[in-house]
Amino acid sequence: MTRKNKTGVFTGTMIGLTMAISSVTYADNHPIRISYIEPLSGPFANVGDAGLKHFRFTAEQINKEGGILGRNVEIVAMDNKQSPSESVQLIQRSVDQGINFVTQGNGSNVAGAMVEAVDRNNRRNADNKVLYLNYAAVDPALTNERCSFYHFRFDANSAIKLEALANYMKDQEEINKLFLINQDYSHGQFISNHMKTLIDEKDMDVEVVGDVLHPIAQVRDFAPYVARIQQSGADTVVTGNWGNDLSLLVRAIDSAGLDVDIYTYYGGGLGTPAAIGARGEDKVYQVTEWHADVNVDEGLEEYEQWFVDFKERYPEIDWYYHRVYNQMYMLKDAIEQVGNAEDVDAIAYALEGMQFESPTGTVTMRAKDHQALQPLYISVMDADAKYDADNSGVGFRTVANIPVEQATDETSCNMKRP
């Protein structure tokens, strides 16, 4: 009996030890996976596909450099069909597959549902937590009243972008009559409301002659909206539209022969430059953390090669999301600082307050609300740019550099930490 008990204890210990060693070996050899939850079908499929190519290209570069802790990075594509409920289900699928990181950016309505789902999972499932890395959903609420310890935003939020645009626009004497047109959900609604607030706060000599919200991803013909712009007498349009909702709007403005300047968040790629071409020169503006000719203007030869290599890999699109570069390398730094890709809480703490030296300058992940603060650029279409956008023959030139000190805002976040 004594011998049997000792053997049993020894055997049990060996089994436990073997399982522990196997677990470590599996973790050491298994790729670090990131679920990419975006529309890969439907009206915004082109946007989802472009983002996927950005993430996979960046993962490939990291893997060529030795990966993270010696492990490869794998991007797992999941089609959310631009649906908040579908996205929540895909978070659960990620959890079921043992994936600790999810990323998304298209649609702040989707992002809000994902924040709630991630928080709910992490409260209930302490042994299988998820970190949500947001590369493009810009509703300020996500880092204010809806902020979460497990959510990090790597794009400038809408308040920051609109502040930058307003500061530039207030000095443009040709802007007198402004027309606002946006998608009817939290992102577009914020722009509609906040732009009018900024006009008053900055004492801009500008009249808002139109303010329209339209259904997201449902308008096929923007001609009736353009007719309203024309009837208003507007000389300037401000829009936060993205994807086909922006491309179709710009094309309709061009087709109508409307002579207006168009200030956008997302006019630099993903179909919009191709929709208007050279006729957009000195007319279509954007506010971004990067554009291709920044490399030329500021001598970023190494990052210029990154852009060129991406274009050679994917000739049909351009390197557009510089924040994907920032996000992936900041995640890499955080995981390597922790020394463990499975400890989500520790990785989140490592990201908090991180200062990352990006090619365009220092990016700081503000600890209070997990909002990335970074330099921004306002640029306008220019046929003389070194690099064109969307193979359109027209690129962008910088008209305003926004230092990081001015690319910021206040936050009301009262974050609960584990």
UniProtKB/TrEMBL annotation:
Every Leucine-binding protein domain range: 31-384
Keyword Signal: yes
Keywords: Signal
Entry-linked InterPro entries: BCAA_transport (IPR051010), Leu-bd (IPR028081), Peripla_BP_I (IPR028082)
UniProt keyword Glycosyltransferase present: no
Family designation: Belongs to the leucine-binding protein family.
Name assigned to this protein: Amino acid/amide ABC transporter substrate-binding protein, HAAT family
